[in-house]
Amino acid sequence: METLGYYNGIIGPLEELRIPMNDRACWFGDGVYDVSICAQYTIFALDEHIDRFFNSAALLYMTPRISKPELAELLNTLVRKLDSPTQFVYWQLTRGTAPRIHTFPEHTAPNLWVTLKPFTLPDIYGKIKLITVEDTRFFHCNIKTLNLLPNVLASEKAKQAGCAEAVFHRGNRVTECSHSNVYILKDGILRTAPLDNLILPGISRAHIIVQCGKLGIPVDETPFTMEELFAADEIMISSTSSFCMSASHLDGYQVGGKAPELLRQIQDALWTEFHQVTGSAL
Ligand code: PDD
């Protein structure tokens, strides 16, 4: 074989192997991986890579279905199936196969993938050119990217706490939720985080702002703090699937409930717009 793919026990040429669309890797990048190089069919530093792999998995609350020695044996067996003795040996574990839901799905087990391809050892004594790039990893919240692992972890944490959503903050600054935007109502004003790289530009958010304009409710899109969140007259979240819902509790404390009429006006406006546009009954 020239390349090899392995998926939960199924083996074939890498180009031919298929994974289910419901694999959590496709939805959320919800998995971990490790990689090593083998030469003469010997995988370099394999135990260290396997230790790191199991550690990465544990940090994401995943337990592989096989033990460390079993994984080592599997990889050592697979590399022998390739024509080339020098290979790029890659394996990954994803949370499982389930319809898309941010929280951890209940009835699934992790999927193990392995991919092997021939590798050419580099000329390590050659010189290379470099560039510098600002480290912006996890600063791209304005992109509706598939890389939603932090959102998945926060969403699961909320579920474990018996809550519907997790409100993210960066230091004292409130940004958005794991799969919604967040707002406060205070003294008749609707406040929500500004559109920058720290939040997703929610479609529902845009509609809520338009509706507030029609209702004559002022909107303030400057950042607000955790203290302001806790002290808000109302806390509201919005998303395509939850529309706009308000909160009664935050971290176990009772919150909001001080501007129910204003809140209701906004909810009614969005709800009415949805039903008018879709022609569905109110
Ligand atoms: N989530 N912020 C984040 C991180 C989101 O994932 C979403 C939507 C929103 C609200 O955007 P919109 O109003 O366009 O739905 C804000 C969807 C519902 C999801 O991932 O299922």
Query: Measured on Cα atoms, how large is the radius of gyration?
Result: 24 Å
The assigned structural class equals alpha+beta
- Going across the biggest sheet, name each strand in turn: 2-1-6-5-3-4
CATH homologous superfamily name of the largest domain? D-amino Acid Aminotransferase, subunit A, domain 2
The level 1 CATH classification of the largest domain is Alpha Beta
Please give the oligomerization state of what you see. single chain
Question: How big a fraction of the residues is strand?
Answer: 25-35%
End-to-end span in angstroms? 61 Å
Number of DSSP helical runs: 7
- The low-confidence runs, each spanning 5 or more residues with pLDDT under 50, are none
Q: What general form does the structure show? A: elongated
Q: How much helix is in the residues?
A: 25-40%
**How many individual domains?**
2
**Major sheet size, sense and barrel closure:** 6 strands, antiparallel
Could you state the order of secondary-structure elements as H and E? EEHEEHHEEHEEEEHEEHEEEEH
Small molecules (ligands, ions, cofactors) in the structure? N-(5'-phosphopyridoxyl)-D-alanine
Whole-number mean pLDDT: 96
CATH topology call of the largest domain: D-amino Acid Aminotransferase, Chain A, domain 2
